[in-house]
UniProtKB/TrEMBL annotation:
This is Microsomal dipeptidase-like Zn-dependent dipeptidase. GO terms for biological process: proteolysis. One of its GO terms (molecular function) is metallodipeptidase activity. It comes from the Bacteria. It comes from Roseimicrobium gellanilyticum. It holds the Pfam family Peptidase_M19.
C-alpha cells in the first residue's frame, strides 16, 4: 500500500506509458514484420469473378488473429491497415466461417529444426505483457489460451462474429444469413452479416496435462477447454511436447502415453483432432488408433513432389498421408504462405488445390482453405482479397469451386460438431 499520492501517480503514469508504448511496439511489429502481405491489392480479378465471389461462402480453417489485440479486446471488429484479418476484411472477402486458432508457445527465431531441445524465447511471453494482458497469461500457457478464448467469447456475440459450438449453432447461423440454393449457400447480405467462428487450439501443451494424474483430472481439464469454446485441438505446435511429436520437432516421435490419454478423452467429449504440425509418426498413429475421431489438417500443404533431406521435417503432408486423411473423411486446409507453396502466390495455392482434386484418392470433398493469416507468416493476400484465389480457380466446375472455398468445411462441421 503506498502512502504517497504523488509517488503513486508517478508509478501509475510510468506503468500506463509502459503499457501504451508496449501496445505501440506490438502494433509496429505487427505492421512491419509479423504479418506482411504479398499482394496488398486484388489485381487481375475479372469483374465476373468478383460477381461470382460475392455469392460464395468462404470458410477458412486457420487464423491466429486472437493473438493480437490491435486496439483492445474488441480490436478484431475494427478494420486495420496492417496484419491480415478482422471482421470488416472478412466481410469484404465473403468469409462466412473463420476458425480462430489459439497459439500459446511460439519459439523464435524460426530455425530448422526448430527447437533442437530449446524453445526460448517465446513470442507470447513478449506479446502478452506488451499488450497489457493479465500477468497470469504471461507464463502459463493454459491461462494464455483461456484468455484468448475469453476474447473470442466477448467478440462472438452474434453481431460481428457468431460463436459456433454445436451443429445447432451452425444450422441457425446458416438459416439466418444464407439462402440454401441448388448452387450452394449464398449470403443474404455479405457486407453486413456476422461471420461464424469456431475456436481451435494450436498445441495441446496448453492443457498442461503433465501436471495431472488421473483420467478424471484429464477429463475435467479437457472439459474446461471445451466449456471455454474450443472444438478443435492440435496435439502439437512447432515443437515436440509431452503429448506427441511435431513435424518440426527435434525428435519427431509419435503419440506418447499421455497423448493417448488425451486422445481417448477427446473422443469421449467429441473434440476434433487437428493434425497440423504433427510429425509423420503422430499422424499415422492417430489415424490407426482412433478410427472414430474426426480429423483435419487446419493449415498446411501436400508434397506432391518427393521431399528430400530437411524438407521431410516441413509442414507438408505426404501424398499418402493426405489420402489417408481424406479416406477417413478428414479435410485439409491449404495454406497461403511460402513454406507450403514455395512463394506466397494465389496461383500456387490454386495449383496445389487442383492437384488434390485430380488425385482420385483425395478428391474434391476433402480440400479446404487454411490460410494461417495473422500467424506470423507472409500471406499471399489479406482476408478481404480471397477473390484472388477464386480467380485462379475459375476454370473449375462451379460446384467444386464452392466446395473448396467453403462447402467442404461447412459439411465437416455439420457432421462433427457436437
Ligand atoms: Zn501453425
Amino acid at each position: 500500500m503506498l502512502h504517497y499520492p504523488g509517488l503513486r501517480a508517478v508509478l501509475l503514469a510510468v506503468l500506463t506509458s509502459l503499457l501504451l508504448s508496449g501496445c505501440a511496439v506490438v502494433e509496429l511489429l505487427d505492421a512491419v514484420a509479423l504479418n506482411p502481405t504479398k499482394h496488398r491489392e486484388a489485381t487481375g480479378v475479372r469483374p465476373s469473378t468478383l460477381k461470382l465471389h460475392r455469392t460464395l461462402l468462404v470458410a477458412d480453417l486457420h487464423a491466429d488473429t486472437l493473438m493480437l489485440d490491435r486496439g483492445g479486446m474488441k480490436g478484431i471488429q475494427q478494420r486495420h491497415r496492417y496484419g491480415h484479418a478482422d471482421v470488416p476484411r472478412w466481410r469484404e472477402g465473403n468469409v462466412g466461417l473463420q476458425v480462430l486458432t489459439v497459439a500459446t508457445v511460439t519459439p523464435v527465431p524460426y530455425s530448422e529444426p526448430l527447437n533442437g531441445g530449446w524453445i526460448l524465447p517465446n513470442a507470447q511471453w513478449v506479446l502478452a505483457p506488451l499488450q497489457g494482458w493479465p500477468p497470469r497469461t504471461w507464463w502459463n500457457s493454459r491461462q494464455h489460451a483461456l484468455h484468448q478464448a475469453y476474447k473470442w467469447r466477448v467478440n462472438a456475440d452474434g453481431q460481428a462474429l457468431t460463436a459456433i459450438r454445436t451443429r445447432e449453432d451452425l444450422a441457425a447461423f446458416l438459416s439466418a444469413n444464407y439462402r440454401n440454393t441448388r448452387a450452394g449457400w449464398i449470403p443474404k447480405s455479405p457486407s453486413t452479416q456476422p461471420v461464424a467462428t469456431v475456436l481451435g487450439l494450436e498445441g495441446s501443451h496448453a492443457l498442461r496435462l503433465h501436471y495431472l494424474d488421473s483420467d478424471t483430472q484429464i477429463a475435467t481439464r479437457v472439459k474446461e477447454f471445451r466449456d471455454a469454446g474450443f472444438r478443435m485441438l492440435a496435439l502439437t505446435h512447432r515443437f515436440d511436447n509431452e503429448l506427441a511429436g511435431a513435424s518440426e520437432g527435434s525428435r519427431r516421435c509419435g503419440v506418447t502415453p499421455l497423448g493417448h490419454r488425451l486422445l481417448r478423452e477427446m473422443e469421449r467429449q467429441q473434440m476434433i483432432c487437428d493434425l497440423a504440425h504433427a510429425s509423420s509418426r503422430t499422424i499415422s498413429e492417430v489415424l490407426e488408433t482412433y478410427p472414430d475421431l474426426p480429423v483435419m489438417v487446419s493449415h498446411g500443404g501436400i508434397a506432391f513432389d518427393a521431399c528430400k533431406g530437411d524438407e521431410a521435417a516441413s509442414r507438408l503432408l505426404s501424398v499418402d498421408q493426405a489420402r489417408a486423411i481424406a479416406k477417413r473423411g478428414g479435410i485439409i486446409g491449404i495454406g497461403l504462405w511460402p513454406e507450403v507453396l514455395g512463394e506466397a502466390e494465389p496461383e500456387l495455392a490454386a495449383q496445389m488445390i487442383k492437384r488434390c482434386l485430380a488425385d482420385p484418392c483425395i478428391g474434391p470433398q476433402h480440400v479446404a482453405l487454411g490460410s494461417d493469416m495473422d500467424g506470423s507468416v507472409l500471406a499471399a493476400f489479406a482476408a478481404n482479397n480471397w477473390c484472388m484465389l477464386t480467380e485462379e480457380l475459375r476454370d473449375l466446375p462451379e460446384g467444386t469451386l464452392r466446395d473448396v472455398m467453403g462447402g467442404n468445411v461447412i459439411r465437416f462441421f455439420q457432421k462433427h460438431l457436437p
